[in-house]
Write a structure and sequence with these properties.
With about 300 residues, the protein is mainly alpha-helical. It has a single domain, classed as Transmembrane di-heme cytochromes, Chain C (Fumarate Reductase Cytochrome B subunit, Up-down Bundle), CATH 1.20.950. It is about 55% helix and about 5% strand. The strands form 2 sheets. The chain has a two-stranded antiparallel ribbon with strand order 1-4. Strands 2-3 form a two-stranded antiparallel ribbon.
Length: about 300
């Protein structure tokens, strides 16, 4: 029988489902802003290996010439992102849920084993509680990334008002680059997270909606009695038989614990009956002799 247990508290589910669309809007609106000055690339000198982003990418998502729309969306939803994240961290601290998310000293090693298991390079995964070691590192990393995105975002949003923070982050250009890198990491996390949810199945997704997790029950074992046909297999599942001759058996000696007497079989009974009849035929017949007849007449 299946068992239903509580997995995710209501607050965790609210924070999760508020944060998901908010971050998605933040990433998309950030792309609308970035289009106006897309300077980042991977390469060296005049050699470009990967440009962020090609024109075909912008056109496919209808990004060009939407700078004002992107700024308005970004600056509104950033406050929802900040408030939701701040309340989430407070909840983790005061509810004790942080113990289930913050990695421990074994998490780094176990996370490597989890990755090998997910890649089907290892048969079994290490034991886990609510989250495995890889999830604990990833979720803690997301919290740090969220804080970093907030600080770098404020630095490039109001570089004069937050000039001290902007200076600590390396100046405006460095703060913008750091903000862009964190956005890419958030996007990669979303992709991996969604793929993992799909692979984990419906039960895992449902637990984040209802808060309940359905666990498979213990397997039921049915024992079926086995009927032994002694006529076909007379010695099946019996101990070895030891034959003891009459002269080997001592007087008043019992063999209850040391000897297993052979069971009589129908065929052996028939042989003994035949031997007895043969012996009877060999004995003298019981015909009356002359002397016996006279004695009987006298009587």
């Amino acid at each position: 029988m299946k068992r239903v247990i509580k997995k995710h508290p209501l607050a965790i589910r609210w924070f999760h489902w508020i944060n998901f669309p908010v971050v998605a809007i933040m990433v998309f609106s950030g792309m609308l802003i970035y289009w106006a000055n897309d300077v980042y690339r991977i390469g060296w000198g005049n050699k470009t290996i990967l440009k962020f982003f090609p024109d075909s990418f912008y056109k496919a998502l209808h990004i060009p010439f939407r700078l004002a729309e992107g700024m308005s969306l970004h600056f509104v939803f950033m406050w929802l992102f900040a408030i939701n994240g701040f309340v989430y961290v407070l909840y983790l601290i005061f509810s004790g849920e942080w113990r289930l998310i913050v990695p421990n000293k074994k998490s780094l090693k176990e996370s490597f084993l989890v990755v090998l298991h997910d890649l089907h390079l290892r048969k079994s995964a290490p034991p886990q509680k609510k989250y495995n070691a890889a999830q604990r590192i990833a979720y803690t990393g997301v919290i740090i990334m969220g804080l970093g995105s907030l600080l770098t975002g404020l630095s490039i949003y109001k570089p004069i008002q937050f000039h001290t923070l902007c200076t600590l982050l390396g100046g405006y250009e460095w703060a913008r680059a750091e903000h862009f890198i964190l956005t890419i990491l958030f996007t990669l996390f979303f992709i991996v997270h969604i793929v993992q949810v799909i692979l984990a199945g419906w039960n895992n997704f449902r637990s984040m909606v209802t808060g309940l997790d359905v666990l498979p029950g213990a397997k039921e074992i049915f024992l079926q009695p086995v009927i032994i046909n002694r006529e076909k297999e007379p010695n099946q599942f019996t101990a070895p038989v030891i034959k003891i001759s009459q002269h080997e058996t001592l007087q008043n000696e019992t063999h209850q614990h040391n000897v297993i007497l052979e069971e009589k079989k129908p065929a052996e009974e028939a042989d003994k009956t035949k031997d007895a009849s043969d012996l009877k035929d060999q004995l003298p017949s019981n015909e009356n002799k002359p002397g016996d007849t006279e004695d009987s007449n006298k009587l």
